[in-house]
Amino acid sequence: MAAVHSAEAFFKLAAARHSVYPLTKTLPAGVTSQRIHQIVKQTFQNTPSSFNSQPTRAVVLFGNEHDKLWDHTRSTLRAIVKDDEAWKGTAARMDLFKGAAGTVLFFNDEEVTKGMQEKFALYADKFPHWADQATGMHEYVAWTALAAEGVGANLQHYNPLIDDFVRDTWNIPKTWTLDAQLVFGGRPAEETEAKPKNPSDDVIKAYGA
């Protein structure tokens, strides 16, 4: 009997991936920091990039290292948000992120992109965009894989405000440019629902079928 192929299993996982708030420091039973690290590694083994350039990089922060990131982000933003009333909302968000179990930092390695521009000069102007696409796919795959394990997550972008701190604290190469912070943790008893999407008929056209 021929194998039965279906995309439904994939879309079930895709539907489980959405921004979850608030997160907790307690990961689901059986999900360890080693398992999270393995998921990130598998993400890199199974996510494509244009010309197989592989410009994406990642750093996984757990425990005190994760807390250190969000303590610094909080102090950086406090220096910018002077109004006490306006600060309350920002402070609450910082508490949400620090209250999670960890963060995956995603980067683009500009040295890789520069090398591809030199090697394939005809497409030089395209490679920065393609690098962004590749890193976005890595973020999506990791996020979806975490959701499949019952881990909640949300994607943040506090770069470039925290770039220098991240680089100095975790010995990040100067050619790595921070792209996003994937915050992960245990899912709460009551969590935010996935945001609605536009009706597919409004945004997708098909011809010739």
TrEMBL record:
Major location category of this protein: cytoplasm
Entry superkingdom: Eukaryota
Annotated keywords: Cytoplasm, Nucleus, Oxidoreductase
Organism field: [Torrubiella] hemipterigena
Start and end residues of each Nitroreductase domain: 15-185
Chain positions covered by the region annotation Disordered: 188-209
GO annotation, biological process: cellular response to oxidative stress
GO cellular component: cytoplasm; nucleus
Location of the protein in the cell: Cytoplasm; Nucleus
PANTHER family: FATTY ACID REPRESSION MUTANT PROTEIN 2-RELATED
Entry-linked InterPro entries: Frm2/Hbn1, Nitroreductase, Nitroreductase-like
UniProt similarity note: Belongs to the nitroreductase family.
Gene Ontology molecular function, alphabetical: oxidoreductase activity
Coiled coil region boundaries: none
The protein, known as: Nitroreductase domain-containing protein
